[in-house]
Specification:
Blueprint lengths: L4 E6 L2 E6 L10 H15 L6 E6 L3 E3 L4 H11 L1 H19 L5 E5 L2 E3 L3 H6 L2 E5 L3 E3 L2 H4 L7 H8 L2 H10 L3 E2 H7 L4 E3 L1 H16 L3 H14 L4 H18 L3 H10 L19
Parallel strand pairs: 2-3, 3-5, 4-6, 5-7, 6-8, 7-10
Antiparallel strand pairs: 1-2, 8-9
Helix pairs in contact: 1-3, 2-3, 6-7, 10-11
This protein binds coenzyme A (COA).
């Protein structure tokens, strides 16, 4: 727990929250610094299996802090601007390649710079009541900090272009239809739905999850042949961390006949440490 980031670890789920509700959780340099410290502290803890990122109050995050991140740093010169950018991008990058599965639980406003951590999370669930916007055009800049890239990565091109140029918001439901998030549910059900997803992830082989999420991100930018080769090598590298996992999965299906991979996961509690 820090000034700007709240954390609870409950039943192996780390509930990390942007914690500047009075400022709609916009990201100032202090938050960006503290968020990196918090997620790094959680990353290899044995009592944490999944990380959920949400926001205190009515916002998920209203993007970058126009005062402390943009205006005040501009007044201090290029060095200050670059330092602030690196601080923000550092924790989004850490999250994109995080050891544990990550879920964005978008409870409210999600604007501009917020698309960086949104994309960094492996999965995203929104409240139907949430509002998503590339509001940069409304105050006179382009969607930077990765936001333009996120829009084109997650949305079809015409939808991304409309979203970026028009400065109109999408509801949680519309964001799900456009591909920005996996699903939208009423706010009152959001935490339960995310908890249920976490429970599924917690029952799966954690090495396989890390290898899978990295693979999905990496292959997007590869040719088919490069991807095929990368996937062979990534699986063989994963085998060195998780020597017994896949063998146990195979054993329970072929020998014990206790489950079917097509219908659910093997029992990882029977696996040797
Ligand atoms: N940067 C700096 N301050 C922000 C902020 C941001 N991105 N978003 C909200 N705040 C501040 C407001 O200035 C206000 O501060 P004050 O209480 O000192 O006056 C406080 O947070 C509450 O915001 P307010 O606008 O009164 O809340 P609201 O619930 O009526 O509206 C938003 C919420 C998110 C629609 C509105 O705050 C907004 O448009 N924020 C900017 C969003 C944006 O363009 N972000 C992109 C940045 S890349």
């Amino acid at each position: 727990m820090t000034d700007t980031v709240a954390v609870d670890v409950i039943d192996r789920i780390a509930w990390v929250r942007f914690n500047r509700p009075d400022k709609r959780n916009c990201m100032n340099p202090t938050l960006n610094r503290q968020m990196l410290e918090v997620i790094e502290e959680l990353e290899f803890r044995p009592d944490v299996g999944v990380l959920v990122l949400s926001g205190e109050g009515s916002a998920w995050s209203a993007g970058m802090d126009l005062k402390e991140y943009f205006r005040e740093n501009e007044g201090k010169g290029l060095g200050a601007t670059r330092a602030a950018q690196r601080q923000a991008y550092a924790w989004w990058e850490r999250l994109r390649w995080y050891q544990k599965p990550t879920i964005a639980m978008v409870n409210g406003w999600c604007f501009g710079g917020g698309y960086g951590p949104l994309f960094a999370c492996d999965l995203a669930f929104a409240a139907e009541e949430a509002q998503f916007g590339l509001s940069e055009i409304n105050w006179g800049i382009l969607p930077g900090g990765g936001a333009s890239k996120v829009a084109t990565e997650l949305m079809p091109f015409r939808k991304a272009m409309y979203h970026a140029m028009m400065g109109e918001n999408l509801s949680g439901k519309e964001a799900a239809e456009a591909g920005l998030v996996n699903e939208a549910v009423p706010l009152a059900q959001l935490r339960d739905r995310v908890t249920a997803v976490c429970e599924v992830l917690l029952a799966k082989n954690p090495w396989a999850l890390k290898a899978t999420k990295d693979a999905l991100r990496r292959v997007r930018e590869m040719t088919y042949d490069n991807a095929e080769d990368y996937l062979i090598r990534a699986q063989e590298a994963a085998n060195s961390f998780d020597g017994e996992g896949r063998k146990e999965g195979t054993r329970q299906f072929l020998d014990e006949k206790s489950y079917k991979p097509g219908l659910g996961a093997y029992d990882i509690s029977k696996q040797k440490a």
